[in-house]
Prior knowledge:
Elements: H1 2-32, E1 38-41, E2 46-49, H2 54-63, E3 66-75, H3 81-91, E4 96-100, H4 110-118, E5 122-125, H5 138-156, E6 162-163, H6 172-180, E7 184-185, E8 190-191, H7 200-210, E9 215-220, H8 223-238, E10 241-243
Bound molecules: zinc ion.
Amino acid sequence: MMLALYIYRRYVALCGILMTFVLYAMLLTAYHMATPRFVLDPEMNGIKHASSFSLRKVSDMLAGRKYAVLTFDDGPYGHGLDEQILATLQKHHAHAVFFLVCSHINNDTRGELAKFESAGDVIGNHTYDHPNLAQLSQPDIRNQIESCNQRIADVTGKRPNYFRPPFGSTTPAITTVVKSLGMQQVLWNANSEDSWVKQPEQMMYFSLTQTEDQSILLMHETPLTAAVLDDMLTQLEQRGFQFVLPDQLSDNTAIN
Ligand SMILES: [Zn+2]
């Protein structure tokens, strides 16, 4: 009887050690794996894992790792603000999608597009001059998006893959046009509210409370955002966030 109890205790202890070891090995392996790949999740307006690699997910959960996409609308801003945002992103090893309003691309700001690209960031289309597309006819919707694609291509040599409608205002007609142009529509499910808040702590509050794992965070290229960004990314990192880009469609030849 005593012997059986002794063996049982040893068995339990061994199992415990073994499980701890396996868990540790899993964590360690996943830590050294490259950042997982993500794709857009149109249902959630966020991102989802490109593949269901469960070891990575378990490891992320155990380690409290989270992923978010940073997006900046309404640029290029000029006056050094785009560079300020880029420098902060670089400091945090973060990449972002910049949804540009093409009427903002002029002789003073066209140079910013090359800076976004060489920093590894992504340029998206945010219409030619920021109308509410829901109020436009289908040909006008198409023209707003296509003329902006053309403008960006004239400057960078590449048409953008991503489109974000102004005010997040989208309809089935808009979605149809976006798809017919071979593009992906990107909305958001976390809002920094930086289009209307005036105080840094307000923007910080909304960004930190709304950003969850696999969120897309909406921000704008504004002086407030540029000033808050460094602190905000630091606090999100302390909560386990890494900032990633979703995979883009491999080609958009449908446009040509
Ligand atoms: Zn906008």
